[in-house]
Amino acid sequence: MSPPTAPHQGGCPFAHRKDALDLSAVINDVINKKDSFDPRTELLRPDKIHSCTWALGADPSTSPHAKWEKPVYQEKILPNILTTIGNTPLVRLNKIPKAYGLKCEVVAKIEFLNPGGSIKDRIALRMVEDAERQGILKPGGVIIEATSGNTGVGLAMVAAVKGYKCIMVIQDKISMDKIRTIIAFGAEVVRVPTMVSFDSAEGIMGVSQRLHKLIPNSLLINQFMNPSNPLAHYDTTGQEIVDGCDGKVDMVVMGTGTGGTATGVSRKIKELCPNAKIIGADPLGSVMALPSSLNKIGVPVTVEGIGYVFIPTALDRSLIDEWIKVDDKDSLNMARRLIREEGLACGGSSGVLMAAAMKAAAHLKEGQRCVVLIPDTIRNYLTNFTNDSWMEARGYIESPLTKNLWWSSKLVSDLNLKAPTTIKLSDTCQKAFDMMNKEGVQQLAVVGKSGMLEGMLSMPDIMSSISKGTVKLSDSVENSVSRQFQTVLSDLTLDKVSKFLDLGEYVTVVSSVCVYTRTVIGIVTPADLLRFISIGEKQK
User: Where are the domains of the chain?
Assistant: First the structure.
């Protein structure tokens, strides 16, 4: 299995303290597999069946959970930024519902106005403060979590204010915008390969739990099975929706990531508005929806922070009245419409929820109300779905300018690419550098023992690792390999390839979309495409 990459250096706000634990050394031990961890017996699985005893209509006095009410501050100047979490506004949506011909009122719960930019700020604060109340998080402690980004931002913000160290374990598919935000709050980031199974020792769960095992006075947040996750939404988000609508709620549309939002909000809504319908919005390639026949196994999910290939413990699917599946193209185009037409500076997952809401709310009548959550901010996605070239390359929007060029409908296979230069994970950075010089290339395909593509290595990748002091030329390339790179199939048209090249230095041609079986066929650079166009122009 491929190892996680080294943490970003200099990110820990405690680095100046002489008594500070050397987190980087511990992280490197985990990366280099110097610890002992057997996922078969030690892994706390995030998909075990929940054992919560909550039941609709039960006596509140028998609730297994402690009720938590957000303090109300009367001061004009608040004590710190964490006191601004929650109490987000409800905003009526106008243009998009009208375009769909809806008769009902559609109201958005604007969660990106939380200080960290997402709905996850709520659970970050609640999980940390519950741990403090329970005595399992002590002063000087280290917060550790596996996250798709937004929870990591929230936890890093809470840790910064409260004075805790923080380590976030993140898959390498997550946008650099989120990762840079987490680092800016002073947290360490460990990136693990997306292709590694979540329940392996090298996956996000395994790495976070291994770090917890090695670091004293650390707290593994474990949002997927932490009861404070749904409780945050039961006590605040759900109650705010009911209060903001004066009890008149006919439908609520939510996404399912960890499942905490859907579980917590649904329980509160069903208690206070028993006739309201709960809609679960789910990406096409996720497995959350019921019946399971709705789910498309093996379909990649581009939208971040929503949908998984396992059912989180925190998700109670019995609360969802109807599931609606939405593909990436519809989701991201709807997110762009929310930005352009309703003025909401939202992220991609908001498009999943809004697209589902437009389908579900078509059955509502005049005078009824549909509430849709808007989970996070545009800040995290400035390098992807808000970029026209990014959308055009994936076929999510048309490219009117490139479309009519003579070469636009030609295929990658027409480029007649030569076989790429490859290197093994165990080879050294010095060998990689020598191979690049000898072959006159800037990129190498990195393959594992089975010949499958593990990642890409470029000259800047090597230089970056060396300049940070994390790697020497005599070290293996494992900790320098880039696992966030663009892949295409050989039957992709060149107009799409040109858009990918607008965004990066190269694209990697692979045999399959499946990350577990793909092999490398070739590498396309701007020079390759220009050479093809030049030869074609001369032959005209």
Answer: 401-539
pTM over 0.90: no
The answer, yes or no, to whether the previous bond of 291 is cis (omega within 30 of 0) is yes
Q: What is the tens place of the pLDDT at every residue in 370-427? A: 999 999 999 989 988 999 999 999 999 987 776 678 999 999 999 999 999 999 988 9
Catalytic residue selected from 109, 120, 165, 270 = 120
What kind and span of H or E run contains 121?
helix 120-134
Residues of the chain with pLDDT under 70: 1-21, 31-35, 64-66, 68, 70, 195, 402-403, 515-516
CA 478/CA 6 separation, integer angstroms? 10
Alpha helices in 163-289 (DSSP H): 176-184, 204-214, 228-232, 238-244, 260-272
- Say whether 120 is catalytic: yes
401-539 placed in CATH 3.30.360.10:
no
Among 231, 196, 198, which residue's Cα sits nearest to residue 47? 198
Tally of helices (H runs) and strands (E runs) in the chain: 17, 16
Q: Distance between CA atoms of 241 and 4, rounded to whole angstroms?
A: 40
